[in-house]
Structures are given as C-alpha cells and as structure tokens.
Amino acid sequence: MAKKKVKRARRKFQVSRNSKEAYNKKINFVLKNLIFFASLFLIVFILSLIFQNELFQNIFSLLIIIFGSISGALVIALLVFIFLKILKKK
Question: Are 23 and 60 in contact (CB under 8 A)?
Fold first, then answer.
C-alpha cells in the first residue's frame, strides 16, 4: 500500500515591521525588570538592617547578593541598548 503524503503545518513567524516598536518593547521590558529587582534589593537591604537575628542576616545577605547581581546585569543591558541607540543615530 502506498503511503499518503501528509503536509506539515507551517509556522508563520511574526516579523516586526517597525523596528522602533520592537526596540522600545525591549527597553521597556528591561526597565520594568530593573525597577522591580532594584526595589526588591532595597526592601531586602532595609529588612536586613531591621532584623538582627543571625538566620535572617544570612538569608537577607544571600537575597541581597542575588537581587543586586540581577539589578546590575539589567543596568548593563539597559546601557547597551542606549549605547546602540546612540550609535544607530550617527
């Protein structure tokens, strides 16, 4: 018996026609996450100053390192996007 050929469904990828919109979405995404993680960093830092228990100090110091490094990475990503935007204008 002959096998029937089955057509595979093709995926259609959405191509952003306006690169400024895609660029602005990336910057907004990075900015929102930066604000979120920076605020978490500040909250945990303030809580680490309030609570003096050794267990809390260990947990808060770990959280400070995590949130601080994520915030630092997002600052670097934001600076890269801004730098690329400046270079693109020239």
Answer: no
pLDDT digits (tens, 9 = 90+) for 3-49: 777 777 666 655 555 678 888 899 999 999 999 999 999 999 999 99
Confirm whether 2 is domain-assigned.
no
Does residue 77 fall inside a structural domain?
yes
Rounded (5°) CA angle 27-31-35:
175
Domain containing residue 37: 21-89
**What are the tens digits of pLDDT across the range 54-64?**
999 999 999 99
- Token pair 């601080």 is found at 68
